[in-house]
Amino acid sequence: RRKIIIDTDPGIDDAFAIIAALSCSQFEVLGITVVGGNNQLNSCVNNALGLVSLMDSRCPVHAGAPVSLNELRLGKTAVEHSTETHGKGGLGGVSLPGDPAGLSTVHAADFIAETVRSNPGEVEIVTLGPLTNIALAMERQPGLLQDVKCIWSMGGGVEKGNRTVVAEFNYWADPEAAARVFAQGQSTSLNMIGLDVTTKTSFSMNDLFFLKLEGGRLGKFFHDITEQYTRVYWERFRLCGCVIHDLVAMMIAIDPSLCGEGDVFPRVNVRIETEGMCRGQTLVDLHNHRDLRDLPRNASVYMGIDRNRYKLRFFETVFKD
Ligand code: BDR
Ligand code: CA
Fold first, then answer.
1. Start and end of every Inosine/uridine-preferring nucleoside hydrolase domain (predicted)?
2. Of 15, 39, 77, 97, which residue is most buried, by most CB within 10 angstroms?
3. Ligand 1 pocket test, candidate residues 200, 245, 250, most atoms within 8 A of CB
4. Rounded distance, CA 134 to CA 166, Å?
């Protein structure tokens, strides 16, 4: 089975992705490493523990960075990000009790560094939150990415942002961490799955009702955690339904064939802006500009997906696998 680490800040869409990963028969999820982001670290950790219990899994949960690299240096411990999208507690107001015994005493960054070191070339990391834990693991073990089989990262956007006009939330939340990971992207296979692809995949209200009616207790859970989230989508974007960003990255990791040849720009240059108004923006050289040719081709960038197969594959993974 494929060895997977999930780095995450659950989070409604993270919850979908974690459930898909824990349901996937191809995956051996070695650990869930948690970072502060959608909510304070302790809420995100509790949600991760709750999801592990919901899935009757024994996968360990590792707490990591509560805040970004810069904020850590300033001694901060609480994220200042608004929690309005993901609701109270981070799962749309749904409380999900977990077993505290599932929480490891090993810091997320140590777990990542150690697991990769002892399984060189075998571990895939799926990142669903700010990249702080990965950057800290790289600090603990320079050259770490050479031993990582690949990274599937939900973040960034070629054409748009969602936290600012140009920046997507995960990379905006810690641009220095994202910049460090992308700066070494050519040492591994780094896949950027950003807003360009995720926003092409909304779940409709019908999809969510279908889950509630036909999906048993997990289906009802998916429906309940998205109730408030869909209201936010309507108020903000006039979209009837919602986008489950992190699930898109996880489903592509599960089945890369969901994206056709024209959907992926393999090995292009991606830089992360860390200054000024565009802080957190991904600068993606999709078309190999002449002036930028000397820059490293450090990531493959996903721009599209077969959205119907994506949903079907999700239903199959969670309900049949
Ligand atoms: C990303 O930001 C978070 O709010 C979501 O969980 C997702 O990881 C989308 O921009
Ligand atoms: Ca997330």
1. 4-310
2. 15
3. 245
4. 23
ipTM, two decimals, is 0.99
Q: DSSP assignment of 182-229, as one string?
A: HHTGGGS-EEEE-HHHHTT-PEEHHHHHHHHHHSHHHHHHHHHHTHHH
Tens-of-pLDDT digits for all 321 residues of the chain? 999 999 999 999 999 999 999 999 999 999 999 999 999 999 999 999 999 999 999 999 999 999 999 999 999 999 876 678 898 899 999 999 999 999 999 999 999 999 999 999 999 999 999 999 999 999 999 999 999 999 999 999 999 999 999 999 999 999 999 999 999 999 999 999 999 999 999 999 999 999 999 999 999 999 999 999 999 999 999 999 999 999 999 999 999 999 999 999 999 999 999 999 999 999 999 998 888 889 999 999 999 999 999 999 999 999 986
DSSP class of 257: G
Q: How many CA atoms lie within 13 A of 35 on its CB side?
A: 29
Query: What's the token pair of residue 290?
Result: 């002449």
CB atoms within 10 A of CB 280: 26
Does any ligand 1 atom lie closer than 6 A to the CB of residue 246? yes
Q: What positions carry a catalytic annotation? A: 245
Ligand 1 proximity of 162 Cβ (cutoff 6 Å): yes
Cβ 124 under 6 angstroms from ligand 1:
no
Nearest to 164 by CA among 1, 271, 282: 282
Q: Residue 245 C-alpha to ligand 2 middle, in angstroms?
A: 8
**Where are the extended beta strands (E) located within the chain?**
2-8, 27-34, 61-63, 123-127, 148-154, 190-193, 203-204, 241-242, 264-272, 282-285, 299-302
Amino acid making up residue 167? A
> For the whole prediction, is pTM greater than 0.90?
yes
Nearest CA to ligand 1 atom 10: 169
